[in-house]
Each structure stands twice: as structure tokens, then as C-alpha cells.
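Tutorial handout. Part one gives the primary structure; part two gives the three-dimensional structure as C-alpha cells.
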Amino acid sequence: MKKKLLVAILSVSLLTTVLAGCGNMNANNQTDTEAANVENDGSEQLESGKVALRIWVEEANINNLQKMIDSFEQKYAGQADFEITIEVSGDADTRTNVLGDIHNAADIFSMPDDQLYSLIAGGALSPVENQSEVKAANLTDAVDAASYNGTLYAYPYSADNGYFLYYNNEYLSDSDVQTMDRILEVAAENEKKLSMEFNSGWYLYSFYGNTGLEFHINDDGVTNYCNWNSEEGSIKGVDVAQALLDIAMHPGFVAQSDGSFVEGIQDDTCIAGISGVWNAVAVQEAWGDNYRACKLPTYTCNGQQIQMASFKGYKMFGVNAYSEHLAWAHKLADWITNEENQILRFEERSTGPSNVVAAASDAVEKVPAIAAVIEQSQYGVLQRVGNSYWNACTSFADTIAAGNPDNMPLQDLVDRLVNGITASVVQ
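Part two.
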């Protein structure tokens, strides 16, 4: 709660300043972009002598990253005396850690795409130097996720930060998993479960994204617009709420965390689950040859089959605008996100590449989880949300998962959800 409030305060004070003038920025988009490209065209002199750089990454990625650093130092041996240090920092905490003490933050840091705008607004990111080369080398969606007003502010390295359906082929056929109804039916028949982290706003969005109901972050970069309580259209707010109640109360469904899903596949209580690539190894170990993955299914809402949507995301490395060795920091960030190292990251960490060539390789396409997240991406949108979204979704979904125990009228329930999502401060 405190962490979310801190981010909200930072967003209000920083984002409003930069993004309030979006109209002017858009009007001058070409000029601004050209200026950024001129300033960061790679012409800055690479210094010799001692070059000390720090990189923040998740702990699990340290060994893999060290190999990339070793090859970088070999490539540029003799040009500088490098002292490159890897430090552990969770990607989810990058924005808070960087903006909390920007001058002492790492020179290079890994981050998810939804933190980009806050870091730009805080003046923390130095735009990519070789803009055209990096844009051409990576998937269009990954480039868009790392850009603002046409300027690329970070170096993409993964395109797999989304979710999809895992299923056990011993119980479920490829045709079964096309609809939520059939998955739940098979699960119940076998006294098993379909697992989903129901009370996370990240996953809850999947039921709303293709209904015609709307949700997006406002131009201030802080507050949200949402009409998930609409009483008009072929799919109304109460229709989705009723569909969610039907799913939550089904004997073949269990609302639980990602961690509990892993436990469920290990003790054979779960035969399907909605999750992401981070659980691929555990799923494969548990299900062996029966391990399958695909896009999310459709679900029944007001008599219609609605394709489940998703948030999709990308990860990238940003360069601290206050780095004492800015040119070398850019050179290193470019190196650890190039085609060769994205392939290395895939081989050792099963990370789905954002590099165009690496992503199209046969090896990547043969990994069920990565193939599934790519398949689902056509039904996904970038996660761009204000902080008030998360708590509101958790409260709503907890009530649904409990079966709406107070029998609150569904319209009142979705009104409360929307009021929370669109609140100007975190509740």
C-alpha cells in the first residue's frame, strides 16, 4: 500500500508536469524526435581510462548477464579499464528505486514497459543513441512499448511478459481448451481445477478487454477512465459480473495465486491454469509430455462467446541520464540487448526475445509457453494504468470469488468497482 502511494505521489508530481502538455508535444512530435536523435546519435566520445558501471537486474538473471558483460569487455578490451558491477534489484521496484535516488541509481537498469512514462517524466532516462538501428532490430510492439512520442527511451530485450493458458493434455484436448465452459466441465468431471489469480487486476482485465466496455489511463498519466459499469450495449457491466460469478462458483474452478497454481500442478489438483512464462519450467517438469500451452479461451457472457483479452508487456534496459560514463552505458545496454545476447538469454533463461531475428527462430517457436504468449498477444494491449486500478480490482474480485456473500446488487458492485478504478488517489 505504501509503495503504491509513493509511486502515485511521484506520478502526480512528475508525470503531470511532462504529460500535461501532451497536445503541444504531439504537435511538435517530429521536431522533438529529431532533436532527441541528433543529441543521441552515438557521436559522443567514448572515454578511455577507468569506466565503472553498475547494472540492476533480477537475481535469477545475474549469471546470464555476467556472460554478456564478459563478452563486452573482450570486445572492447584496451579501449577502457572496465569495472562493471551487477547488483540485485527487482524489476517491479525499478521505478521506485530509481526515482527515489536518481543520482545514486545504477547506470543501467532492467524494467517492465509500464514504468517507462514515470521514468521519462522523472528525467531518469537517456534516450537510446542508435535509434534507427535498435528500432529496426526489434519487434514493432516492443519498440512502441519502449517509446514516447516516437523517441525510443530504452533498449527492449523481451517480448514475453504476458499470460495465456497452460493445460494438461492427459485430460484436455486441443479442442477442449477453446472455451472456458469446456475446460471447467472437464476439470469438474475429473475432480480437478482450472486455476487463475482471480483477484489480480492484471488477470481480471482479461474478462473485459473484448466486451466493448472501455478502460484506459487518462492523458494526465495518473488517473483512469473506465465504464465497466455501463448499462448500455450488448454486453453490460452486470453481464460480465454475472459471468465472473458463474465461473468463480463452478466446481472446476479455483481462484488462487500463481504460486498456488504451481503447487496445484505438482500435486495433480490443477489440470489447467492462466499464468505466464515464468512458470513454464515448473509446468513442464510436472506434466512432462502432456505439457501444452495456447491462447486464452473464450468465455460465456450474456449468451455470447467472448475471447479473453490480456495485458501484454515487454522488458527493457534503461540508461540513467545521470550516468558518469553515459556513452559507455549506452554501448553496454545496446550490447546486452543485441541479437546474440537475446538468443543467449532465451537459451539459458527461456526469455522470449524482442529481437526480430531471434524471435523468428525455430527454437523459440517450438517453446509452448513462448508460442502461446505470442499467439495471445493479438488479443492483448499494453499495460498502461493508474495506481487506483489495482486495489479496486482486488476488492471487487475478492467479493466475486467469495460468491458475493452479502448479495449486493451487481450494478452496485460494478459501480463501486468503477468508482475505485477512476478515483484520483489510491484507496
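Part three, for discussion. The chain has 20 helices and 18 strands. Residues 164-312+382-421 form a domain with the D-Maltodextrin-Binding Protein; domain 2 fold (CATH 3.40.190.10).
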